[in-house]
Design goal:
Elements: H1 2-37, H2 39-44, H3 46-56, H4 70-75, H5 77-94, H6 96-99, E1 102-104, H7 105-114, H8 132-143, E2 150-154, E3 157-161, H9 169-180, E4 185-186, H10 188-195, H11 199-211, E5 216-220, E6 223-227, H12 239-245
Length: about 250
């Protein structure tokens, strides 16, 4: 009797698996038809493209694959993200001497737009075919190469880190605090008071960030200030200088 139940269970499992695979194949076919019908919107409308990628994820379909498969031949968005990641990396590396290898996603997008960056993707000459979310996706492709590129949340903003150094919890708390200040400026005493640290702990975290070039030191009238250029509001950035550097 137990063997009979066992065989029946295996039969049901096999039937369920076959049925599930058939359903997935049908959904993939529908997804391909949808992509063909809405190809132009997927290529030129960033919001539509984002929704399309969300549709693909549950089925394990990866249109961003760099391999020349069906999806990339039809849509080309895999190559688009490769191209975007190269351009983003160029901006990050060119600005590293100024910010130590940490920069806002929004600033990268602004620099690319001010430079009038064009893409081969879909033969487009429009600079509005990508969003900050696309830039974040391109960074994920770079991170898979072990390049040190990654995104981190600093307060309410998302930033790109382009150096391999790991930022521990103390460094992130300093950056989060600095992001809340009007000018991205921190003093040891105010930092210690805000985070409940002693001055030694605050100085240790600040000195490491200073050593990595992520902070600038300014001593004025006996006061020591640490400035974080990557966290300056846009009004404090000389955009023309940034463009020239990149």
């Amino acid at each position: 009797m137990k063997r009979s139940y066992g065989r029946k269970a295996e039969e049901l499992k096999a039937t369920s698996l076959a049925s599930a695979m058939e359903t997935v194949e049908k959904l993939e076919h529908k997804l391909a038809e949808f992509a063909k019908t809405h190809k132009h919107a997927i290529q030129h409308d960033p919001e539509f493209r984002s929704k399309f990628l969300e549709m693909c994820a549950p089925l394990g379909v990866d249109p961003l694959s760099a391999q020349k498969g069906f999806w990339d031949n039809m849509l080309g968005i895999g190559e688009f993200y490769v191209e975007l990641s190269v351009k983003v990396a160029e901006v990050c590396l060119a600005s590293r001497s100024r910010n130590g290898g940490i920069i806002r996603v929004s600033e990268v997008k602004e620099i690319l737009e001010r430079r009038g960056t064009k893409f081969q993707f879909a033969n487009s000459t429009s600079k509005s075919i990508y969003t900050e979310e696309d830039i974040i996706t391109s960074i994920k492709k770079l991170s898979k190469l072990g390049s040190g590129f990654r995104t981190v949340n600093v307060g309410r903003v998302i930033m790109i880190v382009s150096v391999p150094e790991e930022l521990d919890a103390d460094h992130m708390q300093v950056l989060n605090y600095a992001e809340e200040t009007p000018n991205g400026m921190v003093r040891t005493e105010t930092l210690s008071k805000a985070l409940g640290w002693d001055n030694e702990r605050s100085n240790r975290a600040l000195e490491l960030l200073l050593g990595k070039g992520m902070a600038w030191l300014d001593t004025h009238r006996g006061e020591t200030n640490y400035w974080f250029p990557s966290l300056w509001k846009q009004t404090h950035v000389d955009s023309s200088k940034v463009i020239m550097e990149c």
